[in-house]
Design brief:
The complex is a heterotrimer of chains A (285), B (316) and C (307). Chain A is 78% helix and 0% strand. The longest helix of chain A is centred in the N-terminal third of the chain and has 47 residues. The radius of gyration of chain A is 24 Å and the shape is flat. With 285 residues, chain A is an all-alpha fold. The mean pLDDT of chain A is 91. Helices cover 74% and strands 1% of the residues of chain B. Chain B has a two-stranded antiparallel ribbon. In chain B, strand 1 and strand 2 form a beta hairpin. Chain B is flat, with a radius of gyration of 25 Å. The model of chain B has no long low-confidence stretch (mean pLDDT 91). By secondary structure, chain C is α/β, with parallel strands linked by helices. The mean pLDDT of chain C is 91. In chain C, helix 11 runs antiparallel to helix 12. The longest helix of chain C has 15 residues. In chain C, the strands form three sheets. In chain C, strands 1, 2, 4, 5, 6, 7 and 10 form a seven-stranded mixed β-sheet that branches. Chain C has a three-stranded mixed β-sheet with strand order 3-8-9. The chains are: A mainly alpha (285), B mainly alpha (316), C alpha/beta (307). The interface between A and B is large, with 98 and 89 residues.
C-alpha cells in the first residue's frame, strides 16, 4: 500500500466514524423530541389552568378543581406503598441472603414475571377478587392493585442492591457473634439502604402514573371520598376521562393535572438519582 | 447511628441469650421467607384468577376464540384474533421505529457521544421513561392524532402504498404504533446502554490501541459482544409495547378488525379490556375479556422470560 | 344516558351526595347486578334475558326523556336530512362517501363533498348505542339482519370512542365525520344535527314537543314493570330516536340507609327534578309516567323490608 492509499483508508474510516456519531446524535434528538413536545404542551396549556381552585375545589359539578383527585392519588400511592414496601424489602432481603437456594431463584424469576404482567390485568383481578366481594369500588381496592404493581419492583431492587453488599461485611458481623438475620438487617440492609430507598422512590414514581389498574378498582369520584372503602378520584384516571371530552376547559384541566403528575414523578426520579450518586460518592471517598 | 449488633441484656446467661438469639433469628428468617413467598402467591393468584374468570369462555368458545376474527358481544360471537393482530402490528411497527433510534441513543451514551453530554442525555432518556402513559395518551389524542390526520397521513397516503390506504382519521393503528414507539424507546435505550456498558473495557481499549475509530469499536467489538443482551433489550421493549394500555386505548380507534392499512382503526388486547371490561353486560362477555387477558398474560410472560434470559446471561 | 341531567340533579339535590359516573350503561347494569354500585342507568330497558341473568332482582324507573341525534361535521353543511335506511347504511358502511346519490337525493341543494364518511361509534357498552340500534333495527331491515340491537353492537366500519363525550369530541375534531350522541352533548359542543325522517314521513329534530309526543304515543303500551321503548313512535310529530332514560336499581337493596337515601333522591328527581330537564335538552316525563314510576319507587325494599 502506498501512503496515499493508506491515507484514503484512514479518511474513509474517519468519515464513517463521523457519520456514525452524527447518526447517534440524531437518534438522541429524535428520542428527546416527544419529551420536549409533551413538556411544551404541558407548560403551554397546563400552566394557564393552574389556579388556586385547581388545588382547592373538588371535581364536583362545575369541573373547576382537582383537589380530590390530587388527594386521591396521594392516598392511593401512600396506602399502596405501606403494603408493598415493607413486604418487598423483607422479601428482597431474603432473596439476597439466600441467593442460590432453589426457592429464591424461583421467586426471583417470579418478580421478573410479575413485573412484566400488564397492569390492566392486575385491575381485572382486583375487580374480581376484591371489588365484587366487598361490593364496592374503593380506594382500598385501588391501593391493592397499585401495591401488586409495586411489589415486584421493590423486591427486585432490594435483592439486587443487597447482593452488591460485600460478603466481608457479613463475615465481620458474623464473627462478632451476630446471628445471620440480624446481620442481614443491621449490616446488609443498612449498607444497602440508599440504593433501596432510591429503588422505592422509583417504584412510587412509577405507580403515581399507573392508570389502568385503577379503572375498575378505585374507579372515580366527583367528591371527596370519606373513607378507604369509598371509590376515589385520582389524577391519572381524571386525565384519561378529560382526554375523551370535547371541552377545551376540560382539556386544559387535563394538561394541568398532567403537569402536576409529571412534576411529582420527575422530582421523585431526580431525587432517587441524587440519592444513589451521593451514596456512591461517600462510598468511594 | 450504630447500634449494638449483639443484644446485651445483662442478667441472662450466655446459653439463654444464644438460644433466644437463635429463635429470634429463625423468626426473622421465616418472616423474610414469608415475604418472598407472598410474591409467589400474588403471581399465582393473579394468573389463577384470570384463568378462573376466563373459564366459562374457554369452555364455551373453545378454539373459535383463538382463530375467529368476529367479536360481536351482542350476538355472542367471541373471536379474539383481531386483538392479537392489532397488538402484533402496533408492537411490530413501534419496534421498527424505536429500535434503530434506541440503539443509536445507547451507543451515543456508551461510545460515540461527547463525554460531557452522556450524563444529561442519560437522565433525559430516563425522564422520557418516567412520563406516565396516561400523559402520553393525552398528548397523543390531542396533539399527535390531529397532526397525523392533517399532515402526516396525507403525505404517506400519497405514496400509494397499500399499508397507507383509507380515510385520514388520525387515530388508528399508525397513531398507536407511534405512541408505543415513544414509550418503548427509553426501555430499549436504557437496557442496551447497560448491556453495552458491561462489555469489558479491555476489549475497547485493545481495539482503540490497534487504531480503530470509536465507530469501529462499536461495530466490530461492542455490538457483537453484546448481541444477546441487545436482543434481550428489544424483547423487553416488546413486552412493554404489548402490555401498554392507556395511551393505546386513547388513540387506537377501538374497532375489532383486521385491516391491511395502518390508517385503519384497530384494537389491542390490553385496550379492549380497558374499554369493554367495565361495560360488559353478560357473564360470557366478561369471561371472554378475561380470556383476552389470558392471551395477553401468556404473550407478555413469554417475551419477558426470553428477554430476562438473554439480558441476564450477558450482563453478568 | 343523561349524564348532564343526572349531574345537575346531584348538584341541586341537598339530601345526599350522589357519585354518578358516565361509564356507559352496560356497566351500570352489570355493576348493579354485581351489587358494586347502588344504581345504574340505561336508555333502553334491559331485555328479559338480561334481567334473568342479573344476580339481583332489578327494577326500572323512568327518569326523563332523551334524544339520540346524528351529529356531523362537514364544512359548509349545516342542514342534513337522513332517512332511517340511509342512517343504517352509513353506519353499516354500505354508503361510504358523502356525495353518495342516496344522501344527495334526500338533500337537494346541499353541496356534499366527494369525501369518505368517517363514522364514529361507541367503544363501550352504552344505552345511547342501545337506543340508536333499537331504532335502526326497528326501521331498517338490513340493519336488523346484519347487526341487530344492543348496548354494544358490532359496527362494521368506523372509529370506536368511549362515552358520549368521546364521540362528541371526535366528531367535533374530525372533518367529514358523523356519529350518534345524546342531544345535550351535540348542543353543548355546537355540532350540526341531522333531521331524521319519522314514521309519518316528516323531517324531525328533537325538541320538547317532539320528545314529549314520542313518549305519549307509547302510553297505551307501558307494561307494569315500565320497560317500554319509545323509538320510532307512530305519532306524526314525534322525534324517532327518542328514549326513556331509566334508573336500574335492585328491588331489595343490601344497605337500608343507602337505599332510603337513594329512593328519596329518585322521588325528588321524579318531581322537583323534572324542571331542570328542559334547559339541559331533555324532556320532562308526562305526568302519567311519573304516576306509574311512583308505584315502582314505593315498592322498593331494603334488607327484606319495605322502605
Amino acid at each position: 500500500m502506498t501512503s496515499n492509499e493508506l491515507e484514503a483508508v484512514y479518511a474513509g474510516r474517519k468519515l464513517g466514524d463521523r457519520v456514525a456519531r452524527g447518526l447517534a446524535s440524531a437518534a438522541v434528538l429524535l428520542a428527546l423530541l416527544p419529551l420536549v413536545a409533551v413538556f411544551l404542551w404541558i407548560a403551554g396549556r397546563g400552566v394557564r389552568a393552574l389556579s388556586p381552585a385547581f388545588f382547592v375545589e373538588p371535581i364536583g359539578a362545575r369541573g373547576a378543581g382537582m383537589a380530590n383527585a390530587i388527594a386521591g392519588t396521594v392516598q392511593l400511592v401512600v396506602f399502596a406503598s405501606l403494603m408493598a414496601i415493607p413486604l418487598g424489602i423483607a422479601g428482597g432481603l431474603y432473596l439476597a441472603e439466600t441467593r442460590a437456594a432453589p426457592l429464591s431463584r424461583a421467586v426471583r424469576f417470579g418478580t421478573d414475571i410479575l413485573a412484566g404482567v400488564p397492569s390492566i390485568l392486575v385491575g381485572v383481578v382486583v375487580y374480581a377478587v376484591i371489588v365484587v366481594q366487598m361490593k364496592h369500588f374503593s380506594a382500598f381496592a385501588g391501593a391493592t392493585a397499585l401495591a401488586i404493581v409495586m411489589l415486584p419492583l421493590v423486591m427486585r431492587t432490594t435483592d439486587i442492591v443487597a447482593r452488591t453488599v460485600p460478603d466481608s461485611l457479613r463475615e465481620a458481623a458474623l464473627a462478632l457473634g451476630a446471628s445471620r438475620w440480624r446481620t442481614a438487617i443491621f449490616v446488609v440492609l443498612r449498607t444497602a439502604a440508599p440504593g433501596i430507598r432510591s429503588g422505592c422512590m422509583l417504584a412510587v414514581a412509577r405507580v403515581c402514573g399507573e392508570t389502568a389498574p385503577l379503572l375498575f378498582t378505585a374507579y372515580n369520584n366527583r367528591f371527596w371520598s370519606e373513607s378507604l372503602l369509598d371509590p376515589t378520584a385520582s389524577l391519572q384516571v381524571q386525565i384519561f376521562t378529560y382526554t375523551m371530552t370535547p371541552r377545551d376547559d376540560w382539556h386544559a384541566q387535563a394538561w394541568a393535572a398532567a403537569l402536576v403528575l409529571v412534576t411529582f414523578v420527575v422530582v421523585l426520579n431526580v431525587a432517587a438519582r441524587r440519592l444513589v450518586r451521593a451514596a456512591e460518592g461517600s462510598a468511594s471517598a | 447511628m450504630q447500634r449494638a449488633l449483639v443484644p446485651r441484656d445483662a442478667p441472662r446467661t450466655q446459653e439463654e441469650t444464644r438460644e433466644s438469639a437463635r429463635s429470634a433469628d429463625r423468626t426473622l428468617g421465616a418472616l423474610g421467607a414469608g415475604a418472598a413467598g407472598a410474591l409467589a402467591l400474588v403471581l399465582i393468584g393473579v394468573a389463577a384468577s384470570v384463568v378462573h374468570l376466563a373459564w366459562p369462555s374457554i369452555r364455551e368458545n373453545g378454539a373459535s376464540f383463538w382463530i375467529g376474527a368476529t367479536w360481536d358481544p351482542a350476538r355472542g360471537a367471541y373471536g379474539a384474533l383481531s386483538f392479537l393482530f392489532g397488538t402484533v402490528v402496533t408492537a411490530a411497527v413501534a419496534l421498527l421505529l424505536a429500535v434503530p433510534v434506541g440503539l443509536g441513543v445507547a451507543v451515543f451514551l456508551t461510545d460515540l457521544g461527547p463525554k460531557t453530554m452522556r450524563r444529561p442525555v442519560s437522565a433525559l432518556v430516563e425522564l422520557l421513561a418516567a412520563v406516565p402513559s396516561v400523559v402520553y395518551g393525552l398528548w397523543a389524542a390531542l396533539v399527535l392524532a390531529p397532526l397525523l390526520r392533517d399532515w402526516i397521513e396525507p403525505l404517506l397516503g400519497a405514496t400509494g402504498l397499500p399499508i397507507f390506504r383509507g380515510p385520514y382519521l388520525g387515530v388508528g393503528l399508525l397513531c398507536a404504533s407511534l405512541v408505543l414507539a415513544i414509550m418503548v424507546l427509553p426501555t430499549i435505550a436504557a437496557v442496551t446502554r447497560d448491556v453495552l456498558g458491561a462489555v469489558p473495557s479491555e476489549l475497547r481499549e485493545g481495539a482503540l490501541a490497534l487504531g480503530a475509530t470509536p465507530w469501529d469499536v462499536v461495530r466490530f467489538v461492542v455490538v457483537p459482544h453484546a448481541r444477546r443482551g441487545v436482543a434481550g433489550a428489544v424483547l423487553l421493549g416488546l413486552g412493554r409495547a404489548v402490555g401498554e394500555t392507556m395511551a393505546v386505548a386513547a388513540v387506537v380507534g377501538s374497532r375489532a378488525d383486521v385491516s391491511s392499512s395502518l390508517f385503519a382503526p384497530g384494537y389491542t388486547m390490553a385496550s379492549v379490556i380497558a374499554n369493554e371490561f367495565p361495560t360488559a353486560s353478560t357473564e360470557l362477555h366478561v369471561s371472554a375479556l378475561a380470556e383476552v387477558g389470558v392471551m395477553l398474560f401468556l404473550v407478555t410472560v413469554a417475551f419477558n422470560v426470553a428477554a430476562r434470559v438473554l439480558v441476564r446471561s450477558r450482563a453478568r | 344516558m343523561p349524564f348532564p341531567l343526572y349531574t345537575r340533579w346531584a348538584a341541586e339535590y341537598s339530601g345526599a351526595r350522589v357519585n354518578y359516573q358516565p361509564l356507559g350503561s352496560g356497566a351500570g347494569v352489570r355493576q348493579v347486578s354485581d351489587g358494586v354500585v347502588d344504581f345504574g342507568a340505561t336508555d333502553e330497558p334491559m331485555s328479559d334475558a338480561q334481567l334473568k341473568e342479573a344476580r339481583a332482582d332489578l327494577v326500572h324507573v323512568p327518569m326523563t326523556i332523551g334524544a339520540v341525534v346524528i351529529a356531523f361535521n362537514v364544512a359548509g353543511v349545516s342542514e342534513l336530512r337522513l332517512t332511517p335506511d340511509v342512517i343504517a347504511d352509513v353506519f353499516r358502511g354500505t354508503i361510504a362517501k358523502w356525495d353518495d346519490p342516496r344522501l344527495a337525493g334526500a338533500n337537494p341543494g346541499v353541496a356534499l363533498p366527494a369525501a369518505d364518511i368517517a363514522v364514529v361509534h361507541r367503544a363501550d357498552g352504552s344505552g345511547t348505542s342501545a337506543a340508536f340500534t333499537a331504532y335502526l333495527a326497528k326501521s331498517s331491515e338490513g340493519w336488523r339482519a346484519e347487526i341487530g340491537a344492543g348496548a354494544m353492537p358490532r359496527f362494521p366500519v368506523g372509529v370506536g370512542v368511549r362515552g358520549n363525550d368521546g364521540v362528541t369530541a371526535y366528531v367535533k375534531a374530525t372533518p367529514c365525520s358523523i356519529g350518534y350522541v345524546e342531544l345535550a352533548y351535540a348542543r353543548q359542543s355546537h355540532l350540526a344535527v341531522a333531521h331524521v325522517r319519522n314514521r309519518a314521513g316528516k323531517w324531525m329534530t328533537p325538541d320538547l314537543d317532539s320528545l314529549d309526543r314520542a313518549a305519549r304515543s307509547a302510553l297505551g303500551r307501558v307494561p307494569p314493570d315500565l320497560r317500554v321503548s319509545i323509538v320510532d313512535a307512530e305519532d306524526d310529530g314525534a322525534y324517532p330516536i327518542a328514549a326513556l332514560s331509566f334508573l336500574v336499581l335492585p328491588r331489595d337493596a343490601r344497605e337500608r340507609a343507602r337505599a332510603e337515601a337513594l329512593s328519596r333522591f329518585v322521588w325528588w328527581a321524579l318531581h322537583d327534578g323534572q324542571r331542570y330537564a328542559a334547559e339541559l335538552d331533555y324532556a320532562p316525563l308526562p305526568p302519567e309516567i311519573v304516576t306509574r314510576a311512583e308505584v315502582v319507587v314505593r315498592g322498593l325494599r331494603a334488607e327484606g323490608r319495605p322502605l
